[in-house]
Design a protein that fits this description.
Blueprint: H1 3-34, H2 51-66, H3 75-92, H4 94-114, H5 133-157
């Protein structure tokens, strides 16, 4: 296996496990809170930890850990940092504000429908869209930890040809 293949496989596996573990944590915590299995949590957005943040940070951390020499000179690392910034900003900014708007619209629609001014909607707007800063931080930490574990396993278990 060439170094590029090794690095790509490391990044893909790290991202897979970060996303899977983050969503599993959501499933377990939501199921405990609801006292029944909350299957939707396996694919849901919002909540802690941020699976999007865990995913992009595991990519960035995998590339940082596996790039020989001065890691900031890697084009792939630079691209992954830019992607991470955009995803994390979106999670805490745009999507969090959309969550607040959806919650308020649901309240307004309920009030107006109770007053008979509008027809009650068949379905409420989804309010778990974005993340609070601590949810993103937990996703970032999870992504770093998973990337580090995957890197150490790869480094000692999967050889590559230079």
């Amino acid at each position: 296996m060439t170094f590029t293949e090794w690095q790509t496989l490391l990044a893909l596996i790290s991202m897979f496990f970060s996303l899977t573990i983050a969503q599993t944590i959501k499933f377990v915590t939501w199921s405990i809170n609801d006292k029944k299995p909350h299957w939707r949590a396996l694919i849901a957005t919002g909540g802690w930890p941020s699976s999007h943040s865990a995913l992009v940070i595991s990519l960035t951390a995998s590339l940082a850990l596996s790039t020989p020499g001065f890691l900031f000179l890697s084009t792939y690392f630079a691209i992954s940092v830019a992607l991470s910034i955009v995803v994390i900003h979106d999670a805490m900014g745009v999507r969090l504000e959309a969550s607040k708007h959806a919650e308020r619209i649901n309240e307004m629609t309920k009030t107006l429908s109770e007053q008979g001014l509008v027809e009650a909607p068949k379905k409420k707007l989804k309010i778990k869209l974005g993340h609070r800063p601590y949810e993103v931080l937990l996703g970032v930490l999870l992504g770093i930890i998973i990337a580090l574990i995957c890197y150490l396993i790869f480094k000692y278990a999967i050889p590559y040809v230079v």
